[in-house]
Structure formats: C-alpha cells, structure tokens
Amino acid sequence: MKIQVVGVVGAGVMGIGLAQNLAQSGHQVILIDISEEILERANAQIKKNIRFQGFFNKNEKVENSENILHKIKFSTNYQFLESAEFVIENATEKWDIKKGIYAQLDAICPESTIFAANTSAISITRIASVTKRADKVIGMHFMNPVPMKPMVEMIRGYHTSDETISTAKELLSQMGKESILVNDSPGFVSNRVLMLTINEAIFLLQDQVASIEQVDRIFKNCFGHKMGPLETADLIGLDTILFSIEVLYESFNDSKYRPCPMLKKMVDAGLHGRKSGQGFYTYNVVS
User: Fold this and answer.
1) From start to end of the chain, where are the E strands?
2) What is the residue extent of each domain of the chain?
3) Is the peptide bond before 145 cis (omega within 30 degrees of 0)?
4) Which overall architecture, per CATH, does domain 5-183 show?
5) For residue range 172-213, what is the model confidence (pLDDT) as tens digits?
6) Would you please indicate which residues are annotated as catalytic (active-site) residues?
C-alpha cells in the first residue's frame, strides 16, 4: 500500500532534500519548522534545486517546480501532522531538541504513524523511549544531497518491529532508494567511521602535518574517493560534524572521539561549510 502523506520535521538542508524527493515521488508532504522565514528559504531552495536538476539532467523530464511545490505544505504548526502516515525528523543533533519534538509528535500523530529519525549519531532506542510507540520508531540515515543518493542506512532500535521495517523499506522504494539495515549503536556504521576520519583529518591540519588540499588529494587520488574528508565535512556542515562527534564522545566515553579544538573554533566562528559560504573551502552562497 502506497504511503500518501509524509511529515518532514526540520527544513534545513536534509529536510529540504527529503521534501523535494518525496514530492517528486508523488507524496503529499507536510514540512515543519519553527519560523516562516526558514520555511520561505526552504521553498526558494527547492525551486532552485529543481531548476538545477533540470539543467543537469537535460535528457530526463523533470516535473515543473510549481507542481512539486503544490504537493508540499509549509507550516510551523505541528498539528497538521495529525494526517501524516509517516514522519521523518531531521532536527539538530541535540538530544534536548529531539526529545521535545518527539513528545509533540507522539501527542499529535495517530497511533499507527511511524516515526523515522534521520539522525547521524543519536541512539534510535533512546529516541523511542520518549514515545508510547517504541515499536514504530526507526532510524533512516539519509545522505546529502537526498534526491541524488540512492542508498539509506536504516537502523533498527531495540523495540523496532519487523512491520515498521517493512513499511520503511516500502517508503524508500517509492522514493527510488534502497536501504541497508544495521543495529542500533551511536553513530551506527557510517558516522562511527566517518566522523572519526573527519575529526582526525582536522587534527592533521591543526598539527600542520599537511594542508587542506593535500589531505583531500590523498584520499581522492590514493583511494579513489570522490571527495576528501575535509570537502565532505564542508558538505555535511561543520556544526553537524561537531554535534555528531560530541555524541560519540559522550556515548562511548572514549578519548578517540575527542573533538578537535580546531573544529570547535571553526564552528564558533560561524565557518560551517557550504551552507555558510566558508569552511575549509570558500563557496558562493546564492540567496
């Protein structure tokens, strides 16, 4: 059975990509964030993304942006999620923020609604514990940019049911994506490895072992990676990298996850990567 209505909480980079991908695959989307200003920016960014998608895929027919945006309801009111069959949450990687969101979702959404946490590090079992539907909570770690990435890391929490996993796989299939199911552990597979790699790459800069370009070239030219770890950090967002590595440090109490002081300094300075126009590299940010 096709899922018709999907809620997306958080209109940042990931939420924007999800809303676009869902609308393009025929779903009605309710995109929620805390301010009209954020939602207006999301609306404009989706238009821009669709325009660029048409430009880069001239051989493929891309649906008109107005038709796609017509399928997305932009709102600050969580109450609209009472009609959602499936909700994907993309809030900042801070437990206090996520905990409050799930309390609202649990009170508003029907008992049958599945909650998917698009988190890079926080335990799915912990998220499920603040709801009354632990069997209907799952992790779905999407990669950026969402419309272009065919694979999703899916995470089974302690109580996640087989039925929930099956429904989540079906939604991903409707979106044109496959999934790899892993068990719940902070950082899961991808970010437990990736965040450690990026953090160590930043230590290399701090210790003046190599330049930004040299670090990235080694990974691209020696190992065939499409992007180096510092380019990847800029794409993800240095603030998100810091939040994630802090979750790993807190969760494992292991010094190998100690955030690099240079990373903290860059985040404090507002150098968050592509989205801010400056990270390890400089970018043109079009408003």
Assistant:
1) 5-9, 28-32, 72-75, 86-89, 114-117, 137-141, 151-156, 178-183
2) 5-183, 191-268
3) yes
4) 3-Layer(aba) Sandwich (3.40)
5) 999 999 999 999 999 999 999 999 999 999 999 999 999 999
6) 120, 141, 153, 191
